[in-house]
Design brief:
Elements (H helix, E strand, L loop, with lengths): L19 H10 L5 H13 L2 E2 L3 H9 L3 E3 L5 E4 L2 H50 L1
Length: about 130
């Protein structure tokens, strides 16, 4: 199945999406889905499920917690957008916080390495001036 077609082909008429192109773009910029993944996610929401045979196409949507495999293992079903996108954001935020904390530890270690160099030079300069 080709997913790169017209966004209007996946129209969810009367269901509150005014500009699907904008929604597809925001699923890319805010959630990190490719254009094809965003179209597939909208299709998943519209249809309620897709065959598990399409798992390869939906892999990132599954990985992001925006869909799950049904209990019988035959279908991929969407998680409610409030939960799925919030879970994706929470996972992204936790990764960013972890990265910030790791970077802070690396910076603190660097600072500890540089302090003796600075102290040594400043000690010599202030020692020479005082004598």
């Amino acid at each position: 199945m080709e997913l790169t077609g017209d966004v209007e082909a996946l129209s969810i008429e009367g269901k509150g999406i005014r500009d699907e192109g904008d929604v597809v773009a925001r699923l890319g910029s805010e959630v990190g889905l490719s254009h094809e993944e965003a179209l597939l996610y909208l299709r998943l929401l519209r249809d309620g499920d897709i065959p598990v045979s399409e798992t390869r196409k939906a892999e990132r949507i599954l990985d992001k917690g925006m869909a799950i495999v049904s209990g019988d293992g035959k279908r991929i079903i969407p998680v409610h957008p409030r939960l799925g996108i919030a879970n994706n954001y929470r996972t992204w935020r936790e990764a960013m916080v972890r990265e910030i904390n790791e970077r802070r530890m690396r910076v603190d270690k660097l600072i500890l390495e540089l302090i003796p160099v600075y102290d040594s030079v400043m000690e010599k300069k202030t020692g020479n001036r005082g004598g």
